[in-house]
Design goal:
Elements lengths: L1 H15 L2 H7 L5 H9 L6 H13 L3 H8 L2 H14 L10 H18 L6
Helix pairs in contact: 1-4, 3-4, 4-5, 6-7
């Protein structure tokens, strides 16, 4: 991964001259995130953020990057969090039936977003 980040940094400098100019040309990317990713110190999903930066650099669609990055586990965490936040139960930890159904939904979402063969 370190080599990928170094290559990304070199590509940005080659094309834009500096990371600062790249950030100005791509306002959808947060400047702090770009610098943290390029330093290798991003506390979140480094690979996903590096893919977003690379997509901005190469002009690939952001949807294409996000389709490759979402896993069933990540989808489960988001969906289950939303369900528990709006649940009427006093115990908000989620019941086993709800978690099972949410995992099915998350897996279906991952399968749907997985790139199709031959595309």
């Amino acid at each position: 991964m370190r080599e990928d980040i170094d290559g990304l940094r070199r590509a940005i400098r080659q094309r834009y001259g500096s990371v600062h100019v790249f950030c100005q040309a791509n306002p959808a990317l947060k400047r702090a995130t770009v610098y943290l990713v390029l330093s290798g110190k991003y506390p979140g999903n480094l690979e996903r953020q590096a893919a977003k930066i690379e997509a901005a650099l190469t002009g690939k669609a952001a949807l294409e990057v996000s389709r490759q990055a979402l896993t069933a586990r990540e989808a489960f965490e988001v969906l289950q969090g939303a369900k528990c936040a709006h649940c009427r139960r006093l115990d908000k930890r989620g019941c086993p039936e709800c978690q099972t159904q949410t995992m099915r939904e998350a897996q279906a979402l991952e399968d749907y977003l997985r790139p199709k063969e031959g595309t």
